[in-house]
Amino acid sequence: MMYSSRRKPVLYFKEDRRNETPKAPRPEERNQFCSGKCTVYKLFGLCVVLVLVSLLWLQLSCTGDMSRVGGDDRRLLHQPCPLERQASAADDPSWGPHKLALLIPFRERFEELLVFVPFMHTFLNNKKILHKIFVINQMDHYRFNRASLINVGYMESGNDTDYMAMHDVDLLPLNEALDYGFPEEGPFHVASPELHPLYHYKTYVGGILLLTKQHYHMCNGMSNRFWGWGREDDEFYRRLRTAGLQLFRPSGIKTGYKTFRHIHDPAWRKRDQKRVAAQKQEQFKVDPDGGLTNLQYKVESRQELTISGAPVTVLNTKLECDTDKTPWCLLN
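Given the sequence above, the corresponding structure tokens read:
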């Protein structure tokens, strides 16, 4: 299915202003005319000032700012803005019948999130992709578990979305020709090895991967055994093959490694790449029984907020870890 990469601009209609030169009053009428004229101007000026003050107050009160609550909660707060909502794109048949759940596994990367959410909202709107953005915010004391958070996103994204994107928060698509449409034929790896700025091995399926929810369920989701950074997408590649799903990648993209912008700065934000002995032995094994069927979690709160006008749902989530099976979830 082809999707338009352009979006019609918003038109702002201005009122017609007529430049009519008033007739000059006669000398004997000037004093009386000026008195009435000045009174009208004063009232008009007062009204203008009141309107400007009201608009300024509304703007300040509606500027949502993301912040962290102190302690270990790490929750995102936002003051909702009572502005008039735009007409739903679902009423426009040119957007198609499908809706994307954009899943972002997340922990403490607020600077990247502030860039990512409005960028992707605009990018998908320009391509007329119906979508809903979910930030699955891990707020427990265990190591980061990207795969489990994606599983949570799948479980919590609702029945109004029929396909999903497993999307890293630090990867922005720059080429409008990239397809984010419904992957009916099979999983579609948007950030293919030929295009990703960092990872180029043939079995790589990380970064950005689109799947129908039906196909994700066929794989039993992702393994929950991968605490810390890396390897969970390599295991998921094996799941795709086991489920008999054909993997697709972009074709005809000429921008190479400049197709995406990678906004992660490793100089000041280190990845958790520690491996203990038991974890090293387990990381290359297939987890045939784990996934959606043994996922254990609790959504502490669900928040609807906006970032620079882009709506997003934040799922503040606590994962559970069986320390007998995966003791490396507690590694500091």
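The longest strand covers residues 297-307. Try to locate this feature in the token string yourself.
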